[in-house]
Specification:
Elements lengths: L8 E5 L6 H13 L4 E5 L9 H9 L14 H5 L3 E4 L13 E4 L10 H22 L5
Parallel strand pairs: 1-2, 1-3, 3-4
Helix pairs in contact: 1-4, 2-4
Amino acid sequence: MIHTPAKPSVLFVCVHNAGRSQMAAAFLNHLARGRIEVRSAGSAPADSINPAAVAAMSEVGVDMSTATPKVLTPEAVQESDVVITMGCGDACPIFPGKRYEDWQLDDPAGRGIEAVRPIRDEIRARIETLIAELLPNER
């Protein structure tokens, strides 16, 4: 896929790429409706997506049941305009000219859906703000 400047791109990174970064990517895909290129990856990807995260997203009409954890590559960072980390810190390569943010979010790993819901809702709020920043002329 060729990146064009007219379409911003975002990479979400967390260690296992099984919960927070997958929920963020799913929300951005869902809410931006194709206007933003979306990637997610992890420095040590899990074997599968967190089932509580899948269930929590399903409750709000976002299907991420087919998502799979992916390994973080320097190319994924280089091809993205915005890189948002969620607990991987220095495992992410740094390239000049990129916007980096670290979202401090609770880790949903090993937690039930009741604990995942507030994390999901916090991610959605942050995604809505991010869309407004990246697409300021579109409402």
